[in-house]
Amino acid sequence: AEENFPMIVGPSLGHRTKVELVNKSFKTAGVLNKAGIKMSITTDSPVIPLHHLPICAALAVKDGLDKWEALKAISINPAEILGLEDRIGSITVGKDADIVIWSNDPLQIDAKVEYTIIDGKIVFSGEEDNE
To answer: CA triplet 6, 3, 79: central angle to 5 degrees?
Structure first.
């Protein structure tokens, strides 16, 4: 925290078979956040698919990370860590218009993607699943 270095937490979902996962914990994100460290949450795609990212964030919330900070950890924080916050990571005029609209809180396991919008165009509609 004193050096102002951001951290990327994960992969935390899955088995402890890899050396970097021996002491894994979903508490890490909350501990780092409370220490004032900007952090993001990652999967190990394709081993742990990217669509499991909200589950990883939800498990971090369950183990102490603030819910708003969990959403930031999978949106604006990684964009800022990568230096891409001028284009992605939040809904702001002038940024890339890539948005996912959920049926519920995206950190809830039963939330479904209703729409995916890329460059201002709907590229997926959950209604397609019901046809």
So the answer is: 20
Enter the pTM of the model. Answer: 0.86
Hey, which of 12-21, 37-46, 61-70 has the most confident mean pLDDT?
A: 61-70
Domain that holds residue 119: 97-131
| 63 and 114 housed in the same domain | no
Residues 1 and 33 in one domain: yes
> Residue 127, Cβ neighbours under 10 Å: how many?
9
Asked if 5 and 41 sit in the same domain, the reply is yes
Beta pairing partners, 116:
100, 124
Is the distance from CB of 43 to CB of 77 less than 8 angstroms?
no
Segment 52-68, tens digit of pLDDT: 999 999 999 999 999 99
Relative to beta strand 113-118, strand 121-125 is: antiparallel
End-to-end, the C-alpha distance of the chain in Å comes to 51
For residues 2 and 50, membership in a common domain is answered with: yes
The per-residue pLDDT for 17 is: 79
Domain tally, the chain = 2
pLDDT at 68: 97
